[in-house]
Design a protein that fits this description.
Strand order of the largest sheet: 2-3-4-6-5
Order of helices and strands: HHEHEEEEE
CATH architecture: Beta Barrel
Number of domains: 1
Strand content: 15-25%
Largest sheet: 5 strands, mixed, barrel
Helix content: 25-40%
Structural class: alpha/beta
Length: 236
């Protein structure tokens, strides 16, 4: 019996070895091919003010288009003014040759005096806004019809104030919250009909005949005077 069991065990062991051998010689099942790495399609994060589908190139083109349109509008406007004998000028056109250098020297002298150590006592007679500059003018402008932008400084205030005279200055707050500009950067404006000033913070276009005529006031002295013919809101 033992011999028969041993023979049976031997035959089972041999069959197992054959099965193992057959399995080890079989080719391994091919592993599935790996997928290529996905290409990132993430879009850049939008920024405040970006429009849908708008690129940096689109925004640059839009800015150039707006600049070109403004230039075209200004050219058209200048042609219309020229047809009426009116010239559009800037504040730099009111300063004669060499005035910027003279003004710089005057400001430097003023600063040297203030920082010399003497100082100015608050509330004293010297504690006032000083108007620095000259009454030098561009004589060629006298009697010319011009158009210039600026801010208005009226001599009277009030909700229903009707004024016929005011100052025109190149920056907001001059003569009120800040020292006056030089006299040749201050224009005294006279109107035939009363004007109601609605918003002093709104820049305006002034049109009229300019004269190299000095005017003095408690707010500031002016080297130029304009006889007003038109006033309109300045569009930025």
């Amino acid at each position: 019996m033992t011999q028969r069991f041993n023979a049976l065990y031997a035959s089972i062991l041999a069959a197992s070895l054959v099965a193992c051998t057959d399995a080890s010689t079989q080719p391994a099942e091919a592993a599935p091919a790996s997928k290529p790495a996905a290409t990132s399609t993430a879009k850049p994060e939008p920024k405040v003010g970006d429009k849908i589908g708008e690129t940096a190139a689109d925004r640059a083109a839009a800015r150039e288009a707006k600049a070109a349109q403004r230039a075209a509008d200004a050219k058209k406007r200048d042609a219309e003014l020229a047809a009426r004998g009116v010239r559009r000028i800037g504040w730099e056109d009111l300063m004669p040759e060499g005035e910027e250098e003279r003004l710089a020297q005057m400001y430097q002298a003023q600063m040297s005096m203030l920082y010399s150590g003497a100082g100015v006592a608050e509330g004293s007679a010297g504690d006032t806004a000083v108007q620095i500059g000259t009454f030098n003018t561009v004589k060629e402008l006298n009697g010319k019809k011009i158009r210039i932008p600026g801010y208005t400084v009226p001599f009277e205030y009030g909700a229903d104030a009707q004024i016929k005279e005011f100052l025109l200055v190149p920056y907001f707050g001059a003569c009120i919250h800040a020292p006056p500009p030089p006299p040749n950067q201050t224009v005294f404006v006279m109107a035939d009909k009363p004007i109601k000033m609605k918003d002093l913070a709104q820049a305006v276009w002034i049109e009229g005949t300019i004269h190299t005529q000095t005017q003095e006031s408690d707010l500031a002295d002016a080297a130029y005077t304009i006889t007003l013919t038109a006033i309109e809101e300045y569009t930025y």
